[in-house]
Amino acid sequence: MIDAVLVGCGAMSKAWLDAARQIDGLAIVGLVDLDADRAKARAREYDLGGAVIGTSLDAVLEQTRPQAVFDVVVPAARRDVAFSAFAHHCHLLTEKPLADSPENARAIVEAARQAGRIHAVVQNRRYVANVRRIRRFLDSGAIGKPTSIHADFFVAPHFGGFREEMAHVLLLDMAIHTFDAARYMVNGEPAGVHCQEWEPANSWYRQGSSASAVFDLGGGKIFTYAGSWCAAGFRTSWEGSWRIVAERGSLIWDGHEGLKAEMVVPGRDGMFEKIQPIEVPALDPADRVDGHLGIIRDFMRAIETGTEPETRGADNIKSLAMVFGAIESAETGRRVMIAKEAQ
Fold this sequence. Notes:
Blueprint: E1 2-7, H1 13-20, E2 26-32, H2 36-45, E3 52-54, H3 57-64, E4 68-71, H4 78-87, E5 91-95, H5 102-115, E6 119-122, H6 129-139, E7 146-154, H7 169-173, H8 175-185, E8 192-198, E9 210-216, E10 222-228, E11 241-246, E12 249-253, E13 259-269, E14 272-278, H9 291-305, H10 313-332, E15 336-337
């Protein structure tokens, strides 16, 4: 049995608690929020009558002595939560993004290393079935090495609240899902980025609702991202819409179930090489999926076996470096190198 305290009982906590109650061997023994009434409401909603409720994470951890902390707070509070968790010898699973700044991200990862605790991030787009299928297909070499990765993300949600007032809203709040998926699918190592942000006339956000970026993912791989939080009409999937060009063919994914690939075959059809469809194999039974549920299970398995989870902070910081590199490029108007020490 693994006991966990969840801190941050806002809207996102529902996804965590929905997943947690499906997992045998996991007990939520404490709920922490600056608003005690909100924490109490979550406890009632999820029948957690035995959970300790509090506004101080340190106090609840002292009382409950759990093995793990689930961090669902706003990014600005993430460093304090992490340091508190590690001080109480807890493993830490945190909502994305890992931190609100490169400095805080590095500090959290280093604190986890020094504490000898497992630290992972809920980067749940990796746990989408077709993301797993694409990675395995590309790793097989069926269409050669990927060279160009293109992702479009066009969704127009009216969130209300803090998102509509925050700076760099698309890059900081959402783009990391797409960046991490791209890095994962082609096994990329971010090296540089050029990015532009803008606020179109149709936007209801304060700043940064639209962005375009070009990343160098190393090894001759270039990743282009085009996105908007305010593009009404022809909405893409929340996973985006993808085209991956490789040495001997291409793959396209609509972000839903539409996943197909074509490969070059001998011969020409006029000035074009001949092309034929190639099957993208089904999900491998060994692949871990299921979003928050899959990640929490992976995190628990890591605690029980002493292994590292796939979305460990020491790896996820590379995707976060893509976000902060893109923001710096948008602010300065120049290409930004993503140095190894920034990761």
